[in-house]
């Protein structure tokens, strides 16, 4: 199983019946493929839709219906369309239960940086700042390292997207929860030792007494 | 009161240095005929307010490429490389505003509010030069309203009076910019007689619409 | 012609083509009956409608369509329905061209009092405070006196609805405009002398050099 | 997820001292079956937030007459003599808020805004105990958000998932209170299968709706 699939499958386990969920572009979107049987959730696309379906097949394309990544998508029976003000009312107002998004950096205080690399990449924050401030649960889904360097830090070095907002980090190596005491490792992947994880993580880690070993065939 | 105007006549409305709000999200819900008219008018030094700068060959993106824009206020510019390049060259000023904040600023401008308090952006670069206000021990940024000289709106169905409905995700910024601009121009994908749009679907009342462009897409 | 009809007819002359107009309950509503030929305006009902038609005949009643006074009304072809937030967005945002409303008191500084008589009558302001602050032109339409006392004062004595908002006062006796210099009488009704008007008005009046004598048959 | 609930079961939700938002304008757009259930529950000391207190025999008015209300936050109480009388007797607290301010406060509560700045009420009794903020040399009142424990919403057409459309002028406060309350209960005038409401007419998404009462009016 490739690392991204490991991450997407694990994130999907967090979804609960009836939740409204917003998935960021890229890896976070993959989680929709792995929702457990019997779990029914609603996806939001912040450009103006709840009840978003899948990417449209050629014969399903409606030029007026795109997701926040610009792809043509379908809308489910339970869906509805809204303008941007209402869409972000749902977000800022705490009506979105879970937001899953990627990060450039995240730190042990739950700070998140994912919108700008000064002088290099200035795409803008889009809806990300509102999403992480407004959603009830913020899950960062990303590869543990970039170019061999830990993306999980003691303190973010890039300009923040928001302060103290991340609840959970899911990487191919581990699942970590941001707690008042610091970053608590609750699950570690098959074939990874605690020592290796600590080695690959710049942030201080607290290892849970109830650490779960994630076996790849069961996630 | 005939609000229908030709693309040719429309050019008389556009002036250098104007602030123009443009509906659309990555070009979906942007009136491309209105962009055509703006490009043909060749007015310069525009301030453009919209969600994003779309792609180089679509919507707001085309105005950027045509060097008509002095400043952009948007939430995202990552899909149009030209925006970033002109910014880096110092030829284009970019003000980035979180998407939810940006639409509330436009709404405040159109709804007569002096500002809004949002938790979004607290503790980030966005809070620079902004007043912070604490309400019930939570910090909020005071964000100011936005208004424009002209709004370029794309309507899916527009009636003679200007009543407008927006299909699917084309709504995005369109209903709010129609409230926040001195002159409101709607490009009608479909143009119908007054009264033919289901009244429960109208998001923009004709009373705020000044001009309708009914050339088919 | 009765005094209220005199007032309503005169107010209606202020309406211009294409305007969005909000009429208060009672006398202001009568103005809709006297709109001049060739003038097409749109009426708002702040509870959630633009393009309001007339009071519904029995066979036209739709239980879901009322005006701000609670009457069943019709909606015109050019009309649309909105929620209260949008309705007051139109009002506060300056999209309403004219609001016509009654007053308990109005003064020469354009202050208005029409929502409370402390200890006696506390109906609440409803939408009045927003309307007079938001509308481009505020016309007070009322009888000149109440129980023999002038309702047009040097300074309002009742709690205000808003400060410095009234543009024009139309009574059965005169038309007055609130200017920087004070209350300017621009028109006076047939059969009323300037001296009588001054006598019946507590506010200081400036008489226009171009004072128009309103002849009843022509208004 | 079956959201349909009986009026009988609904009574378990209501508790003394709750804050309840109720849709409607002079009773138009108020769910009278929900009011029935609230009256039958006989919970006391309620704080009611709504546009007005309707008439003695309709909507919120019936709760006032039944002495279940400790405090009302509304823009108008003039159509229900009982409200004024109880207020004068010191038995009912009334907070009057301008209609446009009241709906923005509810919206701010539901949309996660810390407050709004409005010019309405400046220089009047409404500004008492409120912060005034000057933006571009114009004064505004800082008005705080409102939220409630329960919202009683009246929907014209409601589907199984809770998606709701509101006909005509029944919209009024309903779409906003559905955003600003912990528990949202919708009374369905017409109840349909999920997907049967035109998606362009849905103002309240099912995701914010907790319970649906489908007994016909």
Automatic annotation (TrEMBL), chains A, C:
The keyword Transferase applies. SMART domains: CoA_trans. It holds the Pfam family CoA_trans. Keywords: Transferase. SUPFAM superfamilies: NagB/RpiA/CoA transferase-like (SSF100950). The keyword Transport does not apply. This is 3-oxoacid CoA-transferase subunit B. Belongs to the 3-oxoacid CoA-transferase subunit B family. InterPro entries: 3-oxoacid_CoA-transf_B, CoA_trans_fam_I, NagB/RpiA_transferase-like. It comes from the Bacteria.
UniProtKB/TrEMBL annotation, chains B, D:
Keywords: Transferase. InterPro entries: 3-oxoacid_CoA-transf_A, CoA_trans_fam_I, NagB/RpiA_transferase-like. The keyword RNA-binding does not apply. The keyword Transferase applies. It holds the Pfam family CoA_trans. This is 3-oxoacid CoA-transferase subunit A. It comes from Romboutsia sedimentorum.
């Amino acid at each position: 199983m490739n690392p991204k699939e490991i991450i997407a499958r694990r994130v999907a386990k967090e979804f609960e019946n009836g939740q409204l969920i917003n998935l960021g572009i890229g890896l976070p979107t993959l989680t929709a493929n792995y929702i457990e049987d019997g779990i029914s959730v609603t996806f939001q696309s912040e450009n103006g839709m709840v009840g978003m379906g899948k990417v449209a097949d050629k014969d399903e394309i409606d030029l007026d219906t795109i997701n926040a990544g610009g792809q043509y998508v379908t809308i489910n029976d339970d869906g509805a369309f809204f303008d941007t003000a209402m869409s972000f009312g749902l977000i800022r107002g705490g009506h979105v239960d879970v937001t899953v998004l990627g990060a450039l950096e995240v730190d042990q205080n739950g700070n998140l940086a994912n919108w700008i690399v000064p002088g290099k990449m200035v795409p803008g924050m889009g809806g990300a700042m509102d999403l992480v401030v407004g959603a009830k649960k913020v899950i960062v889904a990303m590869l543990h390292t970039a170019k061999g360097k830990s993306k999980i830090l003691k303190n973010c070095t890039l300009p923040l997207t928001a302060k103290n907002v991340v609840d959970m980090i899911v990487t191919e190596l581990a699942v970590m929860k941001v707690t008042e005491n610091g970053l608590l490792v609750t699950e570690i992947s098959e074939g990874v030792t605690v020592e290796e994880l600590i080695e690959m993580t710049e942030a201080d880690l607290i290892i849970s007494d109830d650490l779960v070993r994630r076996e790849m065939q069961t996630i | 009161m005939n609000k229908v105007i030709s693309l040719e006549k429309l050019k008389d409305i556009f002036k250098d240095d104007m602030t123009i709000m443009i509906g659309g999200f990555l070009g979906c819900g942007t009136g491309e005929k209105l962009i055509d008219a703006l490009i043909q008018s060749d007015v310069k030094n525009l301030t453009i307010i919209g969600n994003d700068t779309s792609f180089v060959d679509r919507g707001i993106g085309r105005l950027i490429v045509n060097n008509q824009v002095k400043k952009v206020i948007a939430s995202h510019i990552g899909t149009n490389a030209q925006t970033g390049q002109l910014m880096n060259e110092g030829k284009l000023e970019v003000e980035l505003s979180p998407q939810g904040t940006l639409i509330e600023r436009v709404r405040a401008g159109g709804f007569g509010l002096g500002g809004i308090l949002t938790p979004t952006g607290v503790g980030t670069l966005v809070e620079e030069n902004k007043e912070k206000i604490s309400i019930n021990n939570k910090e909020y940024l005071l964000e100011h309203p936005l208004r424009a000289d002209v709004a370029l709106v794309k309507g899916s169905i527009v009636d003679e009076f200007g009543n407008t409905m927006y299909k699917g995700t084309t709504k995005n910024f369109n209903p709010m910019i129609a409230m926040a601009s001195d002159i409101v121009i709607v490009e009608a994908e479909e143009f119908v007689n007054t009264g033919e749009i289901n009244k429960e679907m109208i998001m923009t009342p004709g009373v705020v619409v000044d001009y309708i462009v009914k050339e088919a897409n």
